[in-house]
Amino acid sequence: MGVCGSSEEKTVLLCVTGCIAAYKSCEILRLLQKAGYRVKVLMTEHATQFVGPTTFRALTHEKVAIGLFDDPEDPIHHISLAQEADVVLVAPATANSIAKMAHGIADDLMSTTLLATKAPILIAPAMNSGMWSAAATQENVAVLKNRGVHFIQPDSGYLACGDVGSGRLPTPEAIADATCSLLQGSTDLVGEHVLITAGPTHEPIDPVRYIANRSSGKMGLELARAARDRGANVTLIAGPIELPIPAGIETIHVQTASQMHNAAVKAFGCSTIAILAAAVADYTPSAPSDHKLKKAVDPIDSIPLIQTQDILAELSSNKEDRIVIGFAAETNDVVDYAEAKLKRKGCDAIVANDVSRSDAGFGSSNNRAWWVTSSSVDDLGLLEKRALADEILSRSLLFKTNLK
């Protein structure tokens, strides 16, 4: 992971709460410093039971804020901290700190600062899996997301209490990366909920064989990363891809076209923009075997296929005031096929890309693309996928603005 750098010094206020994962905050701090940011530390009283303020003071060469009245030189410390920060990072964030934020409770230095700040807030939860999945916690998270607070989904794995499940603090690298993105990204997508599909689908022939395509998922992941960096809430529906998922993104993992269809239809309900970049299989075996087929016993002379559900057409037919963008990966007559697809599907635009080239398409870092709408065809040229992602998002947002 390469933590992004900064062209000018900005300040991250790192808020550390009372959690066993507090020791990882030291590594987060060092990664942010390495990226060129100034880091100030604010701790709760309970956090000092896990990591001493001396550690953070030695790393930052600055005072560590703990109590409301512990700095006589700054009698309104929660306001000065709130105003000084370019981003406020709460890592780790306990269930209690999330609940206090959601309900506006301000009874210590950290909670008053979080209530007073106008800077973007990024929360990295860490807690027992039962506490994370509890209805109260999930409702509090939803409240804060609706207010524009950013979250990094906790990891799953072995927890300090001995349980195995979701609630583990994400890696310091992932948290630092998401923090850098907030510091450097545009905010023109704040308030938007962007649904993105990515990667191929695997259509099973038997438990070990499947029909697939060469999609790597890179384009969809760059779209998700760019949307996140520009302030959107992002839901990523990812087929079986091997690339790492960007931090801070709600991700639904699927395998088949049917699973992707069901997940996309469900997520579309709360989306404002849908960008369907996945290379979904057009056909799937009609009767996949429940056991591995042996050529000596079960010779495969043919594989009967049926069409998969058309995700793009279905979302487009129900889009109302939402924007739906499709993709067309073609090897010849790229624009002609894209224009025909646009008419069939009824979406707002098609991103046509030429996958026959050696320098673009599946698995590459580039795409040779056109933006196709009912009124125009814009040649976008050969672009890196991140640059293309930003172009697609800007054009999608313009589409949405013009609808109003």
TrEMBL record:
Tell me if Disulfide bond is a UniProt keyword of this record.
no
Q: What Enzyme Commission number(s) apply to this enzyme? A: 4.1.1.36, 6.3.2.5
Residue ranges of every copy of the Flavoprotein domain listed in the record: 10-180
- InterPro entries recorded: CoaB-like_sf, CoaBC, DNA/pantothenate-metab_flavo_C, Flavin_trans-like, Flavoprotein
Q: Does the keyword Metal-binding apply?
A: yes
| Record: residues binding CTP | 282, 292, 327, 341, 345
Cofactor(s) in the UniProt record = Mg(2+); FMN
Keyword entries, A-Z? Decarboxylase, Flavoprotein, FMN, Ligase, Lyase, Magnesium, Metal-binding, Multifunctional enzyme
Query: Listed GO cellular component terms?
Result: phosphopantothenoylcysteine decarboxylase complex
Q: Which GO BP terms apply?
A: coenzyme A biosynthetic process; pantothenate catabolic process
Q: In which pathway does it act?
A: Cofactor biosynthesis; coenzyme A biosynthesis; CoA from (R)-pantothenate: step 2/5; Cofactor biosynthesis; coenzyme A biosynthesis; CoA from (R)-pantothenate: step 3/5
Q: What is this protein called?
A: Coenzyme A biosynthesis bifunctional protein CoaBC
Gene that encodes the chain: coaBC
